[in-house]
Amino acid sequence: MTSAADTRTGPYLELFAGRGAGGPVGARRQQAIERFEAAGFPGSRDEEWRQTNLGPILRARPVAASGRALGDGGALPFLYPDCDSMVFVNGRYAPAASSPPEGVTAFSLADPAGAGSELLAEHLGASVDGRASCSADAGVHPFAALNTALFEDGVALGIPAGTALERPIQVLWLSAPSADAAAGDNGAPASMEVSFPRLLVVAAENSQASVIETFAAADPAAGGYFVCPAAEFVCGAGSVVRHTRLQADAAGAFHIGFQHARLDRAAAFDSSSLAFGGALVRNDTVALLDGEGADCTLDGLYVLDGSQFTGNHMRVEHRQPHTTSHQLYKGVLDGQARSVFNGRIYVHQAAQKTDAKQTNRNLLLSKAALANSNPQLEIFADDVRCTHGSTIGRLDEDALFYLRARGIGFEEAHGMLVHAFAREVTDKATFEPLRRDLEARLFASLNGGRSNGQGG
Amino acid sequence: MLRVSDLHAKVEEQEILKGVDLEVGAGEVHAVMGPNGSGKSTLAQVLAGKEDYEITAGSLELDGEDLQEMAPEERAHAGLFLAFQYPVEIPGVGNSYFLKAAVNANRKARGESELDAMDFLKLLRERATLVDVDEALLRRPVNDGFSGGEKKRNEILQMAVLEPRLAVLDETDSGLDIDALKTVAAGVNALRAENRAFVVITHYQRLLNYIVPDHVHVLLDGRIVRSGGSELAHELEEKGYGGFDGARAEA
Ligand SMILES: Nc1ncnc2c1ncn2[C@@H]1O[C@H](COP(=O)(O)OP(=O)(O)OP(=O)(O)O)[C@@H](O)[C@H]1O
Ligand SMILES: [Mg+2]
After folding, report:
1. How many whole angstroms from B192 Cα to the centroid of ligand 2?
2. Separation of A95 CA from ligand 1 center, angstroms?
3. Residues of A in contact with B167 (CB under 8 A)
4. CA–CA dist B172, B83 (Å, integer)
5. Tens of pLDDT along A36-54?
6. Are the beta carbons of B106 and A407 separated by less than 8 Å?
7. From CA B22, how far away is CA B216, in angstroms rounded?
8. How far is A408 from chain B, CA to nearest CA, in Å?
9. Three-state secondary-structure class, residue A250
10. Could you tell me the distance, in angstroms and rounded to a whole number, from the CA of residue B80 to the centre of ligand 2?
11. What residues are paired with A157 via a beta bridge?
12. Looking at ligand 1, which atom is closest to the CA of residue B85?
């Protein structure tokens, strides 16, 4: 290992050394840190990572985010009505701000009551460490491994067989970095508070649940912090799991997330990823369709401005016959924003009658914005239907003129058209408070980003 | 009301309008006829403020105000309306939402109070009935997947809702069956008023049986080569545009 690698991985290994590998998943933590140490951080030649500039994260010294108390009602602006909630501040459970669901297993990973849970022993980290993936190039995901090794707290949800939750469960991951994060070269922070939120959802046979994750900063003007979450979904036979991942971090935040879903026979997993905030955001999603008739829907929207970067890297593996996957990712990019969509669909030889569809559409609002879209289909079965499409386009000038010719001002017409583009994704939110929140965020980001649009 | 003088416009280095003169007074209906490619839509789009066209000479005035100084939305606020020859499909924007945004943008610009949902709906229903637009079309995205005839009716509905002072109808009659043509004409005639004017661009005498123009102009190769009364439309119907070559040479 080069000394450069040492200076980068070293501080993370120290965080681990200071904490140890106890608890029901101690062995997995130990294994994860060893894998991380062996693999190191990805280099610029790593195909999956070369378009993600990890520099600012790796140059900053990681400081474990401390569990900070929230003022009264500090979480309220982020919580939806009519749903259960579990609130975490800097990755630690805040019971006073939470109202956890009843009738299901729901506990904080740091809560000793859950420490012995079979749920954790059986599932936590089982997929992230690569064991459950047989794709040749699955490799080790260094940030997922880091999360397993270093998470301090998080949520485990166990939905009993045959149980359908009526209300969504909102998991709020609030970052509240201390104000004294020192600035380093080029304005990039010299040190950053880092948290490792961890979510485990185990939906037993024929159960039904909806989980909304919200990533936000207590203070939207907060400086650089690093949030490195991992989520695992174990979708039992016939279960229906809905998942929403709203990423609304502070403008200076770094966010590298990993999520993994394994679907058993006839399970349905429907996940929406909506990215608005952060300086650099990366989401890696792995879905394993591991039982006949399993069906997954992966939707995403990223709305970027300034010098924001968002990368979505998908890997959908069809491992059994009659499995379906639908991906729809849409991006709106203004300023000098950049995005990468890497969509890999892997159809195993056994997965006959696979139906896979992948769509990535990007709307560029400025000349300097840049979107990359790379579909990768690897198909080893012969009787399948796989389609993919990607587009990178600009606003329809004719439509803009049409609206303006009816008296609608440039700004409003522009907003209407961008909204029309994005709503294909946001309209899928059936939980009304969430859909309204998404609309509001969409409009807020459009208005914030209009200063450098085309003149009217 | 509208005064177009010696208007020259080009697109991609190609001159399309080569000195158009047109004067439209309040309460008048003008028909502009001419063969394909003669510049009729270009004239209409230039009036509405489409940026693709560069005005190289001449002037455009609405009520004495220089249209060239105004953004497309400002022209609409001033009372100009263009029914597009090819209405644009806008997936994702609901038709009635769009109409409400348009009505209120105009009201706001004119210093009037915005209509609330109830009042707007009342207005919309009333006008939709007037121009025979099916309510189902109001719930769909703007022009998205509309048939040719539905698109044209939707243009007339917008006109009826926005109540412009000067409406330019660019081949609103093409692609319409006779019943649709009659409703479109009825919509226009219902709006006819002393303080309103219409410029009706058409290929066919047919529409002019229902909307009787005060003046008819022949646009040929970027110039108005002849103007006359409504009888000119009949003449064109019989003889075609061939007879105007000489006129063009003279002009
Ligand atoms: N945006 C453009 N780019 C290039 N050429 C154009 C453009 N708009 C118009 N033209 C050209 O200008 C000429 C006049 O077009 P215009 O659409 O004004 O004709 P028109 O009289 O409306 O014809 P029609 O009866 O077929 O509707 C045509 O030769 C057309 O090809
Ligand atoms: Mg035309």
Report:
1. 24
2. 68
3. none
4. 7
5. 998 889 887 788 888 899 9
6. yes
7. 11
8. 5
9. coil
10. 18
11. A106, A201
12. 27
Pairing state of beta strands B54-62 and B2-11?
Answer: antiparallel
Going from N- to C-terminal start, the domains of chain B cover 2-88+164-250
Instruction: Specify the pLDDT at position B228.
Output: 92
Q: Do B76 and A417 touch (CB under 8 A)?
A: no
Ligand 1, atom 13, lies closest to the CA of B37
- The structural domains of chain A, with segments of one domain joined by +, span 4-291, 397-456
Contact status, residue A236 vs residue A263, Cβ threshold 8 Å = no
Q: How large is the ipTM? A: 0.96
The DSSP call for residue A425 is: H
Q: Which residue of B has its CA nearest to A414?
A: B93
Q: Tell me: the pLDDT tens digits for A284-327?
A: 999 999 999 999 999 999 999 999 999 999 999 999 999 999 99
Sequential DSSP letters for A91-148: TEE-GGG-B--SSSEEEETT-HHHHT-HHHHHHTTTTTTSTT---TT----HHHHHHH
Type of residue numbered B241:
Y
Domain B2-88+164-250 CATH (choose: 3.20.20.100, 3.40.50.2300, 2.40.240.10, 3.40.50.300): 3.40.50.300
* One-letter amino acid for residue A268 of the chain: A
Among chain A residues, the shortest Cα distance to B51 is held by A401
Is B102 in Cβ contact with A406 (below 8 Å)? yes
